[in-house]
User: Fold these one by one.
Assistant:
Number 1:
Amino acid sequence: MLVPSNARPRYEHLLDLQPRLLRDSEESKHNRMMLRGARGIITSGIARNYVDEVLAGHDEDSRLHIGRYPLPVGLIRAFVDHCDEILIIEEGYPFIERHLCGLLGIPGKSIRGKLTGDLPRTGELTPDWVARALGRPYVGAQLPLSDLAGRPPQLCRGCPHADSFKAMVEAATGLGDAYMFSDIGCYALGVAPPFRAVHTCVDMGASISMAHGAAQTGAHPVLCTIGDSTFAHSGMTALLGAAYANANMTVIILDNSTVGMTGAQDTLLSGEQLLAAVRGLGVDPEHVFAIEPFPRNHEANVELIRREINHRGLSVIVPQRPCIHTKRKGVGRAATLTCGVSCRGTAVNT
């Protein structure tokens, strides 16, 4: 139990373990050193494979591969003492390079890597980049050139989110600079034309929390969009806080009855269960609505959303319509969605 009375003693225990862990790292078979020439190459992870590929048949460089943490200080010190020039090749952040160089570097040693610009700080580490850093010729896979124009990702044709975004954007038009927060899911594509309905996308559940924060500053209108599965995963506590404060904002929970972005798994909350959860979190039932995002209902949906935007307090609107792909394939709940919405009606106050 990591309560305060245990935390400090456990930290001391971890400190006591460090010498043993360091000794195990020094002796680990996952750290491999070969001393040859004056140029040394330190690698970790898949970078070792890239170096093997680029230097195939050329073994004049010294090599140290680090495959164990804590960093084997003794091995590294022996390696650095042997070499005049060191190139550090690692994926991601320059972790080993930072530790090796410290703040002032090592006098008399040339240490190169991502911090010196010999390897890119961003993007993917590839054999091509490794070859450039090593000054070696390398011909990797050649991708065929294409004259096709770039095509950014977009919502699927027939996606219910498209009709929801159209109604939301039109409802907010003319009401001032709207603040529109979104979340992790297909609907993050609402940032792109023609909708331009999303201003932020940070992490799961952040949409409601960020909208609540904006509403507390007096911003208006404030809207946020979150999917049914993301809402069940990490949006409910944020809505609980917004309901407690009766935050002046409009929450749009896009209920397509599936986890569309990761393979059409069943969602934990959908249909009437989702609406009941929203009411149970303390949202005024008079301002909880289910709508059908179809073109035939567009005008009525715009009117409802605009009315709730102008309501001084918290509103939750749930557009309910199955994901177009799961509906076609008859997958999971989306094939038999029962949302408590009349198939001919446009909105049901729940």
Note: Residues 160-349 form a domain with the Rossmann fold fold (CATH 3.40.50.970).
Number 2:
Amino acid sequence: MFFNEVTSALDPELVGEVLNVVAMFAERPDMTMPLVTHEMGFARDVADRVLMLDHG
């Protein structure tokens, strides 16, 4: 499953709920989950590996 900026254009009230759902998917050992986000704290919390683009 590929997640691309899943929290962009959401009401702030919904962001936490969406991030909780994504975190549930991230816990599954049978799933690879590329995630594009500006929520760096969240990425660090749920990811096994984090890649960052600079000027890209």
Note: Strands lie at 3-4, 35-36.
